[in-house]
User: Fold Glycosyltransferases from Zingiber officinale.
Amino acid sequence: MGSLDRSKKRIQLWKKALVHFALCFVIGFFTGFAPPSAASLFSIGAAERPPVVVVVPAAPLAAAGQVVEPAGSTGNRSLSEISRSVPVPADNDVDPPPPREAAAVAPSPRERLLILVTTTRRDDRFRGAFLRRLAHTLRLVPPPLLWIVVQASEDAGATAAMLRNTGVMYRHLTFKENFTDPEAEADHQRNVALSHVEYHRLTGIIHFATASNVYDLQFFEEIRHIEVFGIWPVAMVSTNRKRVVVDGPVCNSSKVQGWILEELNNDNKLLLGSTDKNHKPPKINISGFAFNSSILWDPERWGRPTSLPDTSQDSIKFVHEVILEDETKLKGIPADCSRIMVWHLNMPSVLTLPFHSPNQGRR
Assistant:
């Protein structure tokens, strides 16, 4: 009886194995006839995964610290969509610079990449609010557009989380240096951004978009038509002094005729005399110009020598010098510079609430 029971169990095990084998064979046989589009069903889950923040070196330069950007995010398009950009590597190795290739066919003005650089301040209490407001503005600008935000590394966490939800293609650059002079820190951040653009050969129109700026959306379409340098008047609004000062060029059919720094009258009109125009300002408003990024790595194309002192680590100084040395290369925006399209808001470090009285706490 014992041997008979053991033989029955063996027969049952063989039957189960044959049934499993037959089922697997049938499933595999019919799966082979399935259309290729069925593979998309398995990729849906991967597309809905939350974005992963990857920190990689931005460039092998001392000025460019790190890049904080999402990998595989659906809300922000990858920089791989931009020509001559470098995708994020899997590890933290420094990616090599792209090869110097022959110049491709120039895109039409509507297809030109806009590269907007925004610097931040450590002690700015309104930094998050201004960045979010500027992000809402940039979402309305037709692509292609790349927003570069530069920030101190210790403050990058909260900003990175906010940038991932803006829906704007961006790169978040960080640095570790400490500064006591706000102007020196701002110039350093601009050099970090320009070094990143030069290293990755991001061809487009660069504009330094201060977070507190207010823009006319037509402005972004205007600057896409810049060939070398573009310049325009900026209205500086002061909340403390309650006045508006116009800083920028005076143009005649897109040609710069002079420079002004004048206050608007009560009718919001700017009345200029022959003595009000200056020949050349000591420094141009950082929000009042844009330029073709290729001048950073191909200056000979725009009539500049290749070897210039103090330009390897101070690109913003180089840009200012190029703009001021030859006004014939500047293009006024709009055609006669008669329209204000950029407003810069000077916010005080401390705001006094209108309903707050210093005597209220003594009651």
